[in-house]
Amino acid sequence: MKILVINGPNINMLGIREKDIYGSDNFESLNEGVEEKARELGLEVELYQSNIEGEIVTKIQQAYGVFDGIVINPGAYTHYSIAILDALKAVSIPTVEVHISNIHKREEFRKKSVTAEACIGQISGLGVYGYSLALSGLKQYLSERKYLLDR
């Protein structure tokens, strides 16, 4: 199974920005943890990060027919990017949305996820561990789906 992990704006600043909210793990350790969990689960993973909405949309479109699943942390685009929502809907690749902080315990504007509508699930508030849970959950979902389709 091939999984694309997409990180949006400012995720590359982990360990530098708002440590009281996002913790002290840096972006490199996040990526290392994702790769380690993917190996443990027998998944092939590609990591991608961009601060630019259009680049994220293009990467999602390029995933069509290539990846079995997507893990995405759209960052601030979570709350207003219809373009990312539409790209996720267009490719119809099972997607799990991840947030390091608990978006439901933050400012009012952060409590609404526009992009979650195109996702099979959302993990929020468990720090970088949320990525491991997203990979595990996505593998389980894809395995069950394949089993049902093969019957």
Automatic annotation (TrEMBL):
Q: To which protein family does this belong?
A: Belongs to the type-II 3-dehydroquinase family.
> What SUPFAM superfamilies does UniProt report for this protein, alphabetically?
Type II 3-dehydroquinate dehydratase
Subunit composition and interactions: Homododecamer.
Q: In which pathway does it act?
A: Metabolic intermediate biosynthesis; chorismate biosynthesis; chorismate from D-erythrose 4-phosphate and phosphoenolpyruvate: step 3/7
Q: What is the lineage of its organism?
A: Bacteria, Bacillati, Bacillota, Tissierellia, Tissierellales
Does the record bear Lyase in its keywords? yes
Give UniProt keywords alphabetically.
Answer: Amino-acid biosynthesis, Aromatic amino acid biosynthesis, Lyase
Annotated GO biological process: amino acid biosynthetic process; aromatic amino acid family biosynthetic process; chorismate biosynthetic process; quinate catabolic process
Q: Where does substrate bind?
A: 73, 79, 86, 100-101, 110
Q: Which CDD domains did the record assign?
A: DHQase_II
Function recorded in the entry: Catalyzes a trans-dehydration via an enolate intermediate.
**Any one GO molecular-function label of the UniProt entry:** 3-dehydroquinate dehydratase activity
Q: Which reaction does it catalyse?
A: 3-dehydroquinate = 3-dehydroshikimate + H2O
Q: Which PROSITE patterns match?
A: DEHYDROQUINASE_II (PS01029)
Q: What is this protein called?
A: 3-dehydroquinate dehydratase
Q: Organism's domain of life?
A: Bacteria
Q: Does the keyword Lyase apply?
A: yes
* EC number(s) per entry: 4.2.1.10
